[in-house]
What we know:
The chain is mainly beta. The protein has one domain (about 10-295): PK beta-barrel domain-like (M1 Pyruvate Kinase, Domain 3, Beta Barrel), CATH 2.40.33. About 15% of the residues lie in helices and about 35% in strands. It is built from four helices and 21 strands. It has helices at about 110-120, 140-150, 180-190, 255-260, and strands at about 10-15, 25, 30-35, 35, 45, 65-70, 70-75, 85, 95-100, 100-110, 125-130, 135, 165, 175, 205-210, 220-225, 225-235, 260-265, 265-275, 280-285, 290-295. Strands 1, 2, 14, 15, 16, 17, 18, 19 and 21 form a nine-stranded mixed sheet that branches. A hairpin with a 2-residue loop joins β18 and β19. The longest helix is centred in the middle third of the chain and has 13 residues, at about 180-190. The radius of gyration is 19 Å and the shape is globular. About 40% of the residues are buried.
Amino acid sequence: MPVPLTMRLTIHSLYSYPVKSCAGIRHDQIQVSGAGLEYDRHWVIVDAHGVFMTQRQHPRMVLIQPRPQADGLWLQAPGQDDCFAPVIGDDAAPVPLSIFRSPTLGADQGDAAAQWLSQFLGVPCRLLHVHPQAHRLASLQHVTHWIQTHPDWPDTFLPVNRHAFAFADGFPFLVTNQHSLDELNGQLQADGHERVDMIRFRPNIVLQGLEPYDEDHLAGFRTQGLGFAFVKPCARCPIPNVDPLTGNTAAEPGRTLARHRQFEQGVLFGVNAIAALPEGEHWLRVGDAIEPEFDF
């Protein structure tokens, strides 16, 4: 479907979340691979039983500010001294865990990080980094279905077992539409509620120039020679109800979103995606032009 020439379609913003369910980082530019944005969900916090932790049960996690670097991870949080956790990986024994029944492997990052996190969150927990032996794949069912129903797209999304990633919920990318948030914020304000920021929905790539909820009708998009396939709509959990500045929870924006975006798959906002990237190093930048592929 052709896009009107007056409509400027670009990347609005970029976010990564180095530690699953902790604070995000906004980027002007960031390196990207088929596994996601650089460092995105490369660390995860697990409880005393080895179960991964999220803001669903521990909203204070959003107050933990991670700053990744090549040799480790800095952690900051209110009322605590900064903590540096050097990456322990190559020689570490693999720790099995599952992310929503999807098995993978982590590497324990030591007692200092565990004690720091346990003190802040008030429960015993450990920090894991993605293990070098880990090979967790995006849903073969969804990826295969997308490839079969879009034969006109380049075959660079094949084979289906190439889309490995770290500790994100189910796919290496989450893409949202800024104008969808604008519409939701208008609905919130009409009912006397405060506007919310996009980071509550924890996207990686935010697009602008589309009509509200056009993402429902896209097969994906291209930018700078890279292809992104929208393989599954994103059903939302209560995490957008956590205020990223305070860690407090409330009924909004989830209640208003559910009133307007309830579907058979759940309350939908954003789309899960995989990427097809040529060989070499690739970057995404705010302002990069995008070419949407409508699925009509």
